[in-house]
Amino acid sequence: MNTPKNIAIIMDGNGRWAEQRNKSRSAGHKEGVKTLKKIVKAAVNLKVESLTVYAFSTENWKRPKAEVDFLLTLMKRTMRNEVDELLENGVRVQFLGRKTNLSNNLIKEINNIEKRSAENSNLTLNIAFNYGGRAEITDAAKKIAEDYKNGKIVLNKFEEKDFASYLYQEELQNIELLIRTGGDLRLSNFLLWQSAYAELYFTDKFWPDFAESDLKQALKEFKNRERRFGGLNDGDHHA
Ligand code: IPE
Ligand code: IPE
Ligand code: MG
After folding, report:
1. Ligand 2 pocket by C-beta < 6 Å: which residues?
2. Domain for residue 67, yes or no?
3. 138 located within any domain
4. For 205, how many CA atoms within 13 A lie in the half-sphere containing its CB?
5. I want to staple 15 with a disulfide (CB 3.0 to 4.6 A). Which of 25, 71, 146, 210 is the partner?
6. Which of 6, 12, 126, 130 is catalytic?
């Protein structure tokens, strides 16, 4: 089996990485951006088609205001500072999440990078920011209700693929490999619909310590996984 087309990463452990070094949590988040830059380049080289990274969840608003403010500013700065390098590498950047509650300045940077990179095709980088899987499914349900009310939907013809077309990014239907760094074994509300059949890969490494070699290790393990999608293995057809 080849490299998975759609990879997702829960970039977790920035705070603990910093704590281990007696640094501030903010320093951990800054280091996390550096790791993301490296992993994006690696993904381009490895010919991954799409990489979706969890940068800020709908639940992360519960953190102290100073940390939330730092993360919002870091996102804005990163979008602004990295646009040229991302364009040079042929990366298409897309935002995944709710734009409500985000400042106009941040939305401006996001729209700018989305527009300028729209024609790129080396790698699509989806940045999940103010993203929640349940929020996404709820938003889809509301849009569906609206279209049903307006007579645009015929219920007995409405299938899974039609539902999926109401999600934030229609193209992102199936995550093949979902990586979580930082040692916790949960999804934390990430890509609930799209990960239905994802292979899960967990590593204890904190996100700032995650390197290209770790990504390669995850891809190697993915190749050895047997994906059955509810069916049977090849050669396993005795009744
Ligand atoms: C992930 O690192 C980044 C965000 C959630 C924004 P954390 O900040 O959750 O780091 P830990 O899990 O506390 O170490
Ligand atoms: C998930 O990490 C969200 C991101 C990586 C952006 P969290 O650190 O927020 O998840 P929990 O709180 O441990 O479940
Ligand atoms: Mg965490």
Report:
1. 10-12, 54-57, 60, 184, 186, 188
2. yes
3. no
4. 18
5. 25
6. 12
